[in-house]
UniProtKB/TrEMBL annotation:
<dbReference type="GO" id="GO:0003904">
    <property type="term" value="F:deoxyribodipyrimidine photo-lyase activity"/>
</dbReference>
<dbReference type="InterPro" id="IPR002081">
    <property type="entry name" value="Cryptochrome/DNA_photolyase_1"/>
</dbReference>
<comment type="function">
    <text>Involved in repair of UV radiation-induced DNA damage. Catalyzes the light-dependent monomerization (300-600 nm) of cyclobutyl pyrimidine dimers (in cis-syn configuration), which are formed between adjacent bases on the same DNA strand upon exposure to ultraviolet radiation.</text>
</comment>
<feature type="binding site">
    <location>
        <begin position="377"/>
        <end position="379"/>
    </location>
    <ligand>
        <name>FAD</name>
    </ligand>
</feature>
<dbReference type="GO" id="GO:0003677">
    <property type="term" value="F:DNA binding"/>
</dbReference>
<feature type="site" description="Electron transfer via tryptophanyl radical">
    <location>
        <position position="310"/>
    </location>
</feature>
<dbReference type="InterPro" id="IPR018394">
    <property type="entry name" value="DNA_photolyase_1_CS_C"/>
</dbReference>
<keyword id="KW-0157">Chromophore</keyword>
<dbReference type="InterPro" id="IPR005101">
    <property type="entry name" value="Cryptochr/Photolyase_FAD-bd"/>
</dbReference>
<dbReference type="GO" id="GO:0000719">
    <property type="term" value="P:photoreactive repair"/>
</dbReference>
<feature type="site" description="Electron transfer via tryptophanyl radical">
    <location>
        <position position="364"/>
    </location>
</feature>
<protein>
    <recommendedName>
        <fullName>Deoxyribodipyrimidine photo-lyase</fullName>
        <ecNumber>4.1.99.3</ecNumber>
    </recommendedName>
</protein>
<feature type="binding site">
    <location>
        <begin position="239"/>
        <end position="243"/>
    </location>
    <ligand>
        <name>FAD</name>
    </ligand>
</feature>
<dbReference type="InterPro" id="IPR006050">
    <property type="entry name" value="DNA_photolyase_N"/>
</dbReference>
<dbReference type="Pfam" id="PF00875">
    <property type="entry name" value="DNA_photolyase"/>
</dbReference>
<feature type="site" description="Electron transfer via tryptophanyl radical">
    <location>
        <position position="387"/>
    </location>
</feature>
<feature type="binding site">
    <location>
        <position position="227"/>
    </location>
    <ligand>
        <name>FAD</name>
    </ligand>
</feature>
Length: 473
Protein backbone atom coordinates (compact mmCIF):
# COMPACT_ATOMS: atom_id res chain seq x y z
CA UNK A 1 0.00 0.00 0.00
CA UNK A 2 1.60 3.28 -1.15
CA UNK A 3 1.20 6.74 0.31
CA UNK A 4 1.57 10.17 -1.33
CA UNK A 5 1.79 13.69 0.06
CA UNK A 6 -0.35 16.35 -1.63
CA UNK A 7 1.30 19.67 -0.82
CA UNK A 8 -1.46 22.29 -0.77
CA UNK A 9 -0.49 25.92 -1.39
CA UNK A 10 -2.86 28.26 -3.26
CA UNK A 11 -5.02 25.46 -4.64
CA UNK A 12 -7.38 25.20 -1.69
CA UNK A 13 -10.11 23.06 -3.25
CA UNK A 14 -10.94 19.39 -3.78
CA UNK A 15 -12.61 19.50 -7.21
CA UNK A 16 -10.57 20.20 -10.35
CA UNK A 17 -7.37 19.79 -8.37
CA UNK A 18 -4.95 17.97 -10.72
CA UNK A 19 -2.34 17.16 -8.06
CA UNK A 20 -4.96 15.71 -5.72
CA UNK A 21 -6.63 13.70 -8.48
CA UNK A 22 -3.32 12.26 -9.72
CA UNK A 23 -2.25 11.30 -6.21
CA UNK A 24 -5.59 9.63 -5.44
CA UNK A 25 -5.44 7.64 -8.67
CA UNK A 26 -1.88 6.39 -8.13
CA UNK A 27 -1.81 5.76 -4.37
CA UNK A 28 -4.01 4.13 -1.77
CA UNK A 29 -3.37 6.77 0.90
CA UNK A 30 -3.08 10.54 0.56
CA UNK A 31 -1.70 13.02 3.10
CA UNK A 32 -3.21 16.47 2.44
CA UNK A 33 -0.51 18.78 3.81
CA UNK A 34 -0.32 22.56 4.18
CA UNK A 35 3.05 24.04 5.18
CA UNK A 36 3.05 27.61 6.44
CA UNK A 37 6.27 29.17 5.15
CA UNK A 38 5.81 32.94 4.55
CA UNK A 39 9.57 33.57 4.77
CA UNK A 40 10.03 31.56 1.58
CA UNK A 41 7.98 34.13 -0.34
CA UNK A 42 10.55 36.83 0.32
CA UNK A 43 9.30 40.40 0.46
CA UNK A 44 5.99 39.28 -1.02
CA UNK A 45 4.82 37.22 1.93
CA UNK A 46 1.02 37.48 2.23
CA UNK A 47 -0.27 40.79 3.57
CA UNK A 48 -2.69 41.19 6.47
CA UNK A 49 -5.89 40.94 4.41
CA UNK A 50 -4.60 37.90 2.52
CA UNK A 51 -3.69 36.18 5.80
CA UNK A 52 -7.25 36.68 7.03
CA UNK A 53 -8.59 35.03 3.89
CA UNK A 54 -6.02 32.23 4.05
CA UNK A 55 -7.04 31.32 7.60
CA UNK A 56 -10.68 30.93 6.68
CA UNK A 57 -9.90 29.15 3.41
CA UNK A 58 -7.78 26.58 5.24
CA UNK A 59 -10.61 26.02 7.73
CA UNK A 60 -13.00 25.47 4.82
CA UNK A 61 -10.62 23.00 3.14
CA UNK A 62 -10.24 21.08 6.39
CA UNK A 63 -14.02 20.88 6.62
CA UNK A 64 -14.24 19.64 3.03
CA UNK A 65 -11.73 16.89 3.75
CA UNK A 66 -13.97 15.87 6.61
CA UNK A 67 -16.39 14.47 4.02
CA UNK A 68 -13.67 11.94 3.26
CA UNK A 69 -13.17 11.11 6.94
CA UNK A 70 -9.94 13.04 7.07
CA UNK A 71 -8.58 16.51 7.61
CA UNK A 72 -5.92 18.95 6.52
CA UNK A 73 -2.51 18.27 8.04
CA UNK A 74 -0.80 21.53 9.04
CA UNK A 75 2.84 22.32 9.74
CA UNK A 76 5.03 25.41 10.09
CA UNK A 77 8.39 25.67 8.33
CA UNK A 78 11.37 26.78 10.37
CA UNK A 79 11.70 30.59 10.23
CA UNK A 80 14.41 32.10 8.04
CA UNK A 81 15.33 28.66 6.73
CA UNK A 82 15.80 28.88 2.94
CA UNK A 83 14.11 25.51 2.43
CA UNK A 84 12.02 25.10 5.57
CA UNK A 85 9.28 23.45 3.52
CA UNK A 86 11.78 20.85 2.35
CA UNK A 87 12.61 20.00 5.97
CA UNK A 88 8.91 19.47 6.73
CA UNK A 89 8.37 17.33 3.64
CA UNK A 90 11.37 15.17 4.50
CA UNK A 91 10.04 14.73 8.03
CA UNK A 92 6.64 13.64 6.74
CA UNK A 93 8.21 11.27 4.22
CA UNK A 94 10.27 9.74 7.03
CA UNK A 95 7.27 9.43 9.35
CA UNK A 96 4.84 7.95 6.82
CA UNK A 97 7.01 6.26 4.22
CA UNK A 98 5.38 8.38 1.51
CA UNK A 99 6.71 7.47 -1.92
CA UNK A 100 5.76 10.67 -3.76
CA UNK A 101 4.97 14.37 -3.39
CA UNK A 102 2.36 16.01 -5.60
CA UNK A 103 1.76 19.76 -5.87
CA UNK A 104 0.22 22.37 -8.16
CA UNK A 105 2.41 25.07 -9.64
CA UNK A 106 2.76 28.65 -8.50
CA UNK A 107 4.45 31.26 -10.69
CA UNK A 108 5.78 33.88 -8.25
CA UNK A 109 9.57 34.24 -8.71
CA UNK A 110 10.60 33.40 -5.13
CA UNK A 111 8.28 30.38 -4.99
CA UNK A 112 9.49 29.12 -8.37
CA UNK A 113 13.05 29.13 -7.06
CA UNK A 114 12.01 27.43 -3.81
CA UNK A 115 9.99 24.75 -5.62
CA UNK A 116 12.87 23.93 -7.98
CA UNK A 117 15.21 23.40 -4.99
CA UNK A 118 12.62 21.25 -3.17
CA UNK A 119 11.97 19.12 -6.24
CA UNK A 120 15.67 18.43 -6.85
CA UNK A 121 16.35 17.58 -3.21
CA UNK A 122 13.40 15.19 -2.94
CA UNK A 123 14.25 13.47 -6.21
CA UNK A 124 17.84 13.08 -4.99
CA UNK A 125 16.32 11.41 -1.90
CA UNK A 126 14.54 8.94 -4.16
CA UNK A 127 11.07 10.50 -3.73
CA UNK A 128 8.91 10.89 -6.82
CA UNK A 129 7.73 14.46 -7.45
CA UNK A 130 4.93 15.53 -9.79
CA UNK A 131 3.63 19.06 -10.43
CA UNK A 132 0.58 20.32 -12.32
CA UNK A 133 -1.16 23.44 -13.59
CA UNK A 134 -4.26 24.01 -11.47
CA UNK A 135 -5.03 27.73 -11.54
CA UNK A 136 -4.58 28.87 -15.15
CA UNK A 137 -5.99 27.75 -18.47
CA UNK A 138 -2.46 27.45 -19.84
CA UNK A 139 0.96 27.52 -18.25
CA UNK A 140 2.74 30.81 -19.04
CA UNK A 141 5.35 29.16 -21.26
CA UNK A 142 2.75 27.42 -23.43
CA UNK A 143 1.67 30.58 -25.26
CA UNK A 144 4.05 32.56 -27.47
CA UNK A 145 4.07 34.80 -30.51
CA UNK A 146 4.88 33.48 -33.99
CA UNK A 147 8.47 34.50 -33.28
CA UNK A 148 8.40 32.32 -30.14
CA UNK A 149 8.56 35.40 -27.92
CA UNK A 150 6.41 36.27 -24.91
CA UNK A 151 3.47 38.56 -25.54
CA UNK A 152 3.68 42.17 -24.44
CA UNK A 153 0.24 43.25 -25.68
CA UNK A 154 -2.99 41.77 -24.37
CA UNK A 155 -5.21 41.54 -27.46
CA UNK A 156 -3.03 39.14 -29.50
CA UNK A 157 -2.34 37.18 -26.31
CA UNK A 158 -6.08 36.81 -25.74
CA UNK A 159 -6.70 35.74 -29.34
CA UNK A 160 -4.17 32.95 -28.86
CA UNK A 161 -5.45 31.92 -25.43
CA UNK A 162 -9.10 32.03 -26.54
CA UNK A 163 -8.51 29.18 -28.99
CA UNK A 164 -7.39 26.95 -26.11
CA UNK A 165 -9.71 27.57 -23.18
CA UNK A 166 -12.60 25.39 -24.34
CA UNK A 167 -10.28 22.35 -24.33
CA UNK A 168 -9.81 22.29 -20.56
CA UNK A 169 -12.52 20.31 -18.75
CA UNK A 170 -12.62 20.48 -14.94
CA UNK A 171 -11.79 17.33 -13.00
CA UNK A 172 -14.26 15.78 -10.57
CA UNK A 173 -13.51 15.62 -6.86
CA UNK A 174 -11.69 12.31 -6.26
CA UNK A 175 -12.46 9.67 -3.66
CA UNK A 176 -9.83 10.00 -0.95
CA UNK A 177 -8.40 7.96 1.90
CA UNK A 178 -6.60 10.67 3.87
CA UNK A 179 -3.87 9.73 6.31
CA UNK A 180 -3.22 11.77 9.45
CA UNK A 181 0.15 12.74 10.91
CA UNK A 182 1.22 12.17 14.49
CA UNK A 183 1.79 15.92 14.91
CA UNK A 184 -0.51 18.28 13.03
CA UNK A 185 -1.02 21.86 14.19
CA UNK A 186 -4.43 23.50 14.61
CA UNK A 187 -4.95 26.18 11.96
CA UNK A 188 -5.33 28.79 14.72
CA UNK A 189 -1.68 28.24 15.64
CA UNK A 190 -0.57 29.78 12.33
CA UNK A 191 -1.38 33.25 13.68
CA UNK A 192 -3.05 34.44 10.48
CA UNK A 193 -5.89 36.45 12.00
CA UNK A 194 -5.39 40.14 12.87
CA UNK A 195 -4.77 41.18 16.45
CA UNK A 196 -6.55 44.51 15.84
CA UNK A 197 -10.31 44.60 15.36
CA UNK A 198 -10.27 46.05 11.83
CA UNK A 199 -11.73 43.17 9.81
CA UNK A 200 -15.43 43.39 10.71
CA UNK A 201 -16.38 44.22 7.13
CA UNK A 202 -14.47 41.22 5.82
CA UNK A 203 -17.18 38.91 7.08
CA UNK A 204 -19.32 39.69 4.07
CA UNK A 205 -16.98 37.24 2.32
CA UNK A 206 -17.16 33.45 2.57
CA UNK A 207 -13.69 32.07 1.84
CA UNK A 208 -13.42 28.48 0.66
CA UNK A 209 -14.50 26.26 -2.18
CA UNK A 210 -18.19 26.35 -1.29
CA UNK A 211 -18.13 30.14 -0.92
CA UNK A 212 -16.50 30.45 -4.35
CA UNK A 213 -19.26 28.46 -6.03
CA UNK A 214 -21.95 30.40 -4.17
CA UNK A 215 -20.42 33.66 -5.41
CA UNK A 216 -20.30 32.30 -8.97
CA UNK A 217 -23.95 31.32 -8.67
CA UNK A 218 -24.94 34.85 -7.64
CA UNK A 219 -23.01 36.25 -10.59
CA UNK A 220 -24.67 33.83 -13.01
CA UNK A 221 -28.13 34.63 -11.68
CA UNK A 222 -27.80 38.36 -12.08
CA UNK A 223 -24.73 40.41 -12.97
CA UNK A 224 -23.30 38.37 -15.84
CA UNK A 225 -26.30 39.28 -18.00
CA UNK A 226 -25.40 42.97 -17.75
CA UNK A 227 -21.66 42.59 -17.36
CA UNK A 228 -20.49 44.80 -20.23
CA UNK A 229 -22.09 47.91 -18.77
CA UNK A 230 -22.48 46.87 -15.12
CA UNK A 231 -18.82 46.08 -14.47
CA UNK A 232 -17.97 49.81 -14.48
CA UNK A 233 -20.61 50.85 -11.93
CA UNK A 234 -19.16 50.64 -8.41
CA UNK A 235 -22.48 51.18 -6.66
CA UNK A 236 -23.83 47.81 -7.85
CA UNK A 237 -22.52 44.27 -7.77
CA UNK A 238 -21.83 44.19 -11.48
CA UNK A 239 -18.66 42.10 -11.28
CA UNK A 240 -18.12 38.49 -10.28
CA UNK A 241 -16.12 39.28 -7.10
CA UNK A 242 -14.34 35.98 -7.69
CA UNK A 243 -10.81 37.44 -7.62
CA UNK A 244 -9.89 36.31 -4.07
CA UNK A 245 -11.39 32.88 -4.68
CA UNK A 246 -9.34 32.54 -7.86
CA UNK A 247 -6.18 33.76 -6.16
CA UNK A 248 -6.40 31.14 -3.44
CA UNK A 249 -7.36 28.44 -5.90
CA UNK A 250 -10.78 27.80 -4.39
CA UNK A 251 -12.17 27.73 -7.91
CA UNK A 252 -10.44 27.46 -11.30
CA UNK A 253 -11.01 29.34 -14.57
CA UNK A 254 -12.19 26.13 -16.32
CA UNK A 255 -14.75 25.59 -13.56
CA UNK A 256 -15.98 29.17 -13.90
CA UNK A 257 -16.36 28.91 -17.68
CA UNK A 258 -18.03 25.49 -17.57
CA UNK A 259 -20.53 26.44 -14.89
CA UNK A 260 -21.50 29.67 -16.63
CA UNK A 261 -22.08 27.81 -19.89
CA UNK A 262 -24.06 25.10 -18.12
CA UNK A 263 -26.16 27.73 -16.34
CA UNK A 264 -27.32 29.22 -19.64
CA UNK A 265 -27.27 26.09 -21.81
CA UNK A 266 -31.06 25.77 -22.05
CA UNK A 267 -31.94 29.45 -22.20
CA UNK A 268 -32.98 31.07 -25.45
CA UNK A 269 -31.65 34.52 -24.58
CA UNK A 270 -28.38 33.58 -22.92
CA UNK A 271 -26.02 36.50 -22.24
CA UNK A 272 -22.75 36.89 -24.09
CA UNK A 273 -20.07 35.45 -21.80
CA UNK A 274 -17.15 36.69 -23.88
CA UNK A 275 -16.67 40.06 -22.10
CA UNK A 276 -16.29 38.27 -18.78
CA UNK A 277 -14.06 35.51 -20.15
CA UNK A 278 -11.88 38.23 -21.62
CA UNK A 279 -11.42 39.69 -18.12
CA UNK A 280 -10.28 36.28 -16.92
CA UNK A 281 -7.86 36.47 -19.84
CA UNK A 282 -6.33 39.62 -18.31
CA UNK A 283 -5.65 37.60 -15.16
CA UNK A 284 -3.91 35.00 -17.29
CA UNK A 285 -1.93 37.74 -19.08
CA UNK A 286 -0.65 39.00 -15.73
CA UNK A 287 0.81 35.58 -14.93
CA UNK A 288 2.27 35.36 -18.43
CA UNK A 289 4.10 38.64 -17.83
CA UNK A 290 5.29 37.66 -14.35
CA UNK A 291 6.73 34.38 -15.62
CA UNK A 292 8.65 35.92 -18.51
CA UNK A 293 9.52 39.22 -16.79
CA UNK A 294 9.91 38.35 -13.09
CA UNK A 295 11.19 41.83 -12.15
CA UNK A 296 7.86 43.53 -12.92
CA UNK A 297 6.69 43.70 -9.28
CA UNK A 298 9.68 45.96 -8.52
CA UNK A 299 10.96 47.49 -11.76
CA UNK A 300 9.43 49.35 -14.69
CA UNK A 301 8.43 46.98 -17.48
CA UNK A 302 9.06 49.79 -19.93
CA UNK A 303 12.66 50.76 -19.20
CA UNK A 304 12.12 54.19 -20.73
CA UNK A 305 10.27 55.02 -17.53
CA UNK A 306 13.48 54.69 -15.56
CA UNK A 307 14.19 58.28 -16.62
CA UNK A 308 10.88 59.58 -15.26
CA UNK A 309 11.27 61.91 -12.28
CA UNK A 310 8.79 60.99 -9.59
CA UNK A 311 8.01 63.54 -6.90
CA UNK A 312 9.77 63.22 -3.56
CA UNK A 313 7.97 60.78 -1.29
CA UNK A 314 5.25 62.73 0.52
CA UNK A 315 4.37 60.94 3.77
CA UNK A 316 1.50 63.32 4.53
CA UNK A 317 -0.10 62.87 1.10
CA UNK A 318 0.36 59.11 1.27
CA UNK A 319 -1.31 58.98 4.66
CA UNK A 320 -4.31 60.95 3.42
CA UNK A 321 -4.54 58.74 0.34
CA UNK A 322 -4.43 55.52 2.42
CA UNK A 323 -7.02 56.83 4.88
CA UNK A 324 -9.44 58.02 2.22
CA UNK A 325 -9.08 61.66 3.20
CA UNK A 326 -7.85 63.21 -0.05
CA UNK A 327 -10.91 65.41 -0.49
CA UNK A 328 -11.61 63.70 -3.84
CA UNK A 329 -14.89 61.83 -3.20
CA UNK A 330 -14.64 58.87 -5.59
CA UNK A 331 -11.04 58.24 -4.51
CA UNK A 332 -11.87 58.44 -0.82
CA UNK A 333 -14.86 56.13 -1.29
CA UNK A 334 -12.60 53.54 -2.89
CA UNK A 335 -9.90 53.73 -0.24
CA UNK A 336 -12.46 53.44 2.55
CA UNK A 337 -14.14 50.50 0.84
CA UNK A 338 -10.72 48.84 0.64
CA UNK A 339 -10.00 49.33 4.33
CA UNK A 340 -13.46 48.15 5.40
CA UNK A 341 -13.88 45.13 3.13
CA UNK A 342 -10.45 44.17 1.77
CA UNK A 343 -11.66 44.79 -1.76
CA UNK A 344 -12.19 47.66 -4.19
CA UNK A 345 -14.13 47.93 -7.42
CA UNK A 346 -11.81 47.69 -10.43
CA UNK A 347 -12.89 50.98 -12.03
CA UNK A 348 -12.18 52.74 -8.74
CA UNK A 349 -8.81 50.97 -8.42
CA UNK A 350 -7.79 52.73 -11.62
CA UNK A 351 -8.93 56.10 -10.30
CA UNK A 352 -7.14 55.88 -6.94
CA UNK A 353 -3.99 54.67 -8.72
CA UNK A 354 -4.15 57.51 -11.23
CA UNK A 355 -4.45 60.12 -8.50
CA UNK A 356 -1.46 58.67 -6.65
CA UNK A 357 0.88 58.18 -9.60
CA UNK A 358 -0.07 61.20 -11.69
CA UNK A 359 -1.68 63.99 -9.70
CA UNK A 360 0.48 63.25 -6.63
CA UNK A 361 3.28 61.81 -8.78
CA UNK A 362 4.18 59.24 -6.14
CA UNK A 363 5.93 56.08 -7.34
CA UNK A 364 3.62 53.22 -8.27
CA UNK A 365 5.58 50.92 -5.90
CA UNK A 366 4.07 52.78 -2.94
CA UNK A 367 0.54 52.02 -4.09
CA UNK A 368 1.39 48.47 -5.05
CA UNK A 369 2.67 47.73 -1.54
CA UNK A 370 -0.40 49.25 0.14
CA UNK A 371 -2.72 47.16 -2.00
CA UNK A 372 -0.59 44.10 -1.25
CA UNK A 373 -1.28 44.48 2.46
CA UNK A 374 -4.95 45.48 2.30
CA UNK A 375 -6.51 43.48 -0.56
CA UNK A 376 -7.98 40.05 0.10
CA UNK A 377 -7.28 39.30 -3.58
CA UNK A 378 -3.67 40.58 -3.48
CA UNK A 379 -2.03 38.68 -6.34
CA UNK A 380 1.57 39.41 -7.28
CA UNK A 381 1.04 39.07 -11.02
CA UNK A 382 -2.12 41.13 -11.27
CA UNK A 383 -1.21 43.71 -8.63
CA UNK A 384 2.04 44.53 -10.43
CA UNK A 385 0.37 44.54 -13.85
CA UNK A 386 -2.45 46.79 -12.66
CA UNK A 387 -0.25 49.40 -11.04
CA UNK A 388 2.18 49.54 -13.94
CA UNK A 389 -0.75 49.72 -16.38
CA UNK A 390 -2.16 52.84 -14.72
CA UNK A 391 1.28 54.40 -14.15
CA UNK A 392 2.06 54.00 -17.86
CA UNK A 393 5.21 51.94 -17.32
CA UNK A 394 3.76 48.48 -17.90
CA UNK A 395 2.97 46.11 -20.72
CA UNK A 396 0.13 47.27 -22.97
CA UNK A 397 -0.21 50.16 -20.53
CA UNK A 398 -2.47 53.17 -20.60
CA UNK A 399 -0.28 56.00 -21.97
CA UNK A 400 1.04 58.26 -19.27
CA UNK A 401 -0.78 61.25 -20.69
CA UNK A 402 -4.08 59.45 -19.99
CA UNK A 403 -4.80 60.93 -16.59
CA UNK A 404 -8.21 60.06 -15.21
CA UNK A 405 -10.31 63.01 -14.08
CA UNK A 406 -11.95 61.61 -10.92
CA UNK A 407 -14.84 64.09 -11.10
CA UNK A 408 -15.92 63.26 -14.63
CA UNK A 409 -15.32 59.57 -13.92
CA UNK A 410 -17.57 59.57 -10.85
CA UNK A 411 -20.24 61.58 -12.70
CA UNK A 412 -20.18 58.97 -15.47
CA UNK A 413 -20.00 55.77 -13.44
CA UNK A 414 -21.64 56.83 -10.17
CA UNK A 415 -24.07 59.43 -11.52
CA UNK A 416 -26.34 59.70 -8.47
CA UNK A 417 -23.41 59.37 -6.07
CA UNK A 418 -24.74 56.17 -4.46
CA UNK A 419 -21.27 54.65 -4.12
CA UNK A 420 -19.78 57.86 -2.74
CA UNK A 421 -22.65 58.36 -0.28
CA UNK A 422 -22.21 54.83 1.05
CA UNK A 423 -18.52 55.12 1.82
CA UNK A 424 -18.18 58.87 2.47
CA UNK A 425 -20.98 59.64 4.94
CA UNK A 426 -19.90 63.29 5.16
CA UNK A 427 -21.36 63.69 1.66
CA UNK A 428 -24.52 61.67 2.22
CA UNK A 429 -26.70 64.79 1.96
CA UNK A 430 -24.71 66.53 -0.77
CA UNK A 431 -27.04 67.98 -3.43
CA UNK A 432 -26.50 67.29 -7.11
CA UNK A 433 -23.00 67.71 -8.47
CA UNK A 434 -21.55 68.53 -5.06
CA UNK A 435 -21.35 64.84 -4.21
CA UNK A 436 -18.67 64.62 -6.92
CA UNK A 437 -17.00 68.01 -6.35
CA UNK A 438 -17.99 69.39 -2.91
CA UNK A 439 -15.28 72.08 -3.04
CA UNK A 440 -17.41 73.99 -5.54
CA UNK A 441 -19.54 75.23 -2.61
CA UNK A 442 -17.29 76.41 0.22
CA UNK A 443 -20.18 76.80 2.65
CA UNK A 444 -21.36 73.22 2.10
CA UNK A 445 -17.81 71.89 2.32
CA UNK A 446 -17.24 73.60 5.66
CA UNK A 447 -20.57 72.39 7.03
CA UNK A 448 -19.97 68.80 5.91
CA UNK A 449 -16.62 68.45 7.65
CA UNK A 450 -15.18 66.91 4.51
CA UNK A 451 -11.55 67.92 3.73
CA UNK A 452 -10.50 70.24 0.95
CA UNK A 453 -8.90 68.54 -2.07
CA UNK A 454 -5.34 67.40 -1.50
CA UNK A 455 -4.36 68.82 -4.89
CA UNK A 456 -5.62 71.02 -7.68
CA UNK A 457 -6.58 68.39 -10.27
CA UNK A 458 -6.01 70.61 -13.30
CA UNK A 459 -2.69 72.04 -12.15
CA UNK A 460 -1.23 68.71 -11.08
CA UNK A 461 -2.32 67.14 -14.36
CA UNK A 462 -0.30 69.75 -16.23
CA UNK A 463 2.70 69.23 -13.92
CA UNK A 464 2.59 65.46 -14.51
CA UNK A 465 2.48 65.91 -18.27
CA UNK A 466 5.43 68.32 -18.10
CA UNK A 467 7.46 65.82 -16.06
CA UNK A 468 6.63 63.15 -18.63
CA UNK A 469 7.76 65.35 -21.51
CA UNK A 470 11.04 66.08 -19.72
CA UNK A 471 11.70 62.36 -19.18
CA UNK A 472 11.15 61.70 -22.89
CA UNK A 473 13.74 64.31 -23.86
Amino acid sequence: MTTAIVWFRRDLRLADNPALVAAAEAHEKVIPLYIHAPDEEGEWAPGAASRWWLHHSLVALDKGLGRHRGGLQVAIARERAPTGSLEVLRQVVGETGAAAVYFNLLYDPAIRKRDAAVRKALEDDGVDVASFNANLWCDPWEIATKEDEPYRVFTPFWRNLRTRIDEREPLAEPKLHPQALKKSLPIDKLGLLPTLDWDKGFHEWTPGESGAHDMLGLFADDAVGHYSEGRDLPARHGTSRLSPHLHFGEISPPQVAQQLRAHFARRKNAPDLEPYLRQLGWREFGHHLLWHFPDTPKKNFNKKFDAFKWAKRDAHALRRWKQGKTGIPIVDAGMRELWATGWMHNRVRMLVASLLTKNLRQHWLLGEKWFWDTLVDADLANNAMGWQWVAGSGADAAPYFRIFNPVTQSEKFDPDGAYIRRWVPELRDAPGRLVHAPWEDEAFLKKSGYPKPIVDLKATREEALLAYQKSKS
